[in-house]
Design brief:
Helix content: 40-55%
Radius of gyration: 18 Å
Structural class: alpha+beta
Number of strands: 11
């Protein structure tokens, strides 16, 4: 058993289980990709002097296709996971949960992130191996309203390890992020709030000086592109209401 069965797990504890899931899905011809903090950590070759050794993860977050849900169920069952019948029955076309005997669970969603804001992932699951594309990993963080320091550090790792590029899924696709935020005032507001907080936190988070400078530069470039992009009529109409009406959904944890 890995550590405390009810407690969080280190990256090194969960990585073999992630490898096994992805390999089994590939063997069955089923698309499955890591997302969230574990995916970001996997893509981070340079940790920038950030304190990551003590980081713990409560679960594995993955995304697949609803059309392949039966095959995905077989992937999990074949590796000894127990489906969460209550959650899967109630939310099974949006989200499913599978429990591993080691004490962690896997949270599976289908081609869409539906948290504080909705991010459509159709057509984007096979852009890079193993994980969501870096731009989508960034959007998963940028759409969080009630963020914490771990969320911001995850963004730091993404920015440190990926260039900002247009139309290149190997980097953080500026056109992907800018296109979504220029059409949705709510997402734009949450994302720019996140980036403003991240820029402040970057000044006081222990890391290498060169990493700090690069992260700040890329935050500035991303904010600049988002702010300068022409906005849709929908964006402009919603902006007139502003923050007087809540612009995001409150995320209620299922478990």
């Amino acid at each position: 058993m890995i550590g405390d069965p009810m407690g969080p797990f280190a990256y090194e504890d969960l990585r073999p289980h992630a490898d096994a899931l992805l390999a089994e899905a590939e063997r069955r011809g089923t698309v499955l990709r890591l997302m969230g903090g574990m995916a970001i950590r996997e893509r981070a070759r340079d940790l920038g002097g950030l304190e990551t050794a003590g980081r713990r993860y409560a679960d594995l977050d993955v995304v697949g296709r609803l059309a392949e849900v039966r095959s995905l169920d077989e992937v999990f069952r074949g590796l000894g996971y127990e489906p969460d019948q209550a959650v899967n029955t109630q939310f099974g076309t949006v989200r499913r949960i599978y429990h591993h005997p080691a004490g962690f669970h896997v949270d599976l969603v289908f081609e869409r992130l539906e948290f504080c804001h909705e991010i459509d992932l159709r057509g984007r699951l096979e852009l890079v191996p193993r994980t969501l594309a870096p731009a989508d990993l960034a959007l998963q963080k940028l759409q969080i309203v009630e963020r914490n320091e771990k969320d911001v550090i995850d963004l730091f790792l993404l920015l440190l390890n990926h260039e900002l590029r247009d139309r290149d899924p190997a980097g953080i696709e500026l056109d992907r992020i800018v296109g979504l935020t220029a059409d949705d005032w709510g997402l734009y507001t949450t994302a720019t709030d996140f980036l403003a907080d991240a820029l402040v936190l970057a000044t006081r988070t222990p890391m290498r000086d060169d990493a700090r400078a690069l992260i700040a530069e890329r935050i500035g470039e991303l904010r600049g592109r988002m702010e300068a992009a022409p906005k849709s009529a929908r964006w402009r109409l919603r902006s007139r209401v502003g923050r007087r009406i809540r612009w995001y959904r409150v995320v209620e944890e299922v478990i």
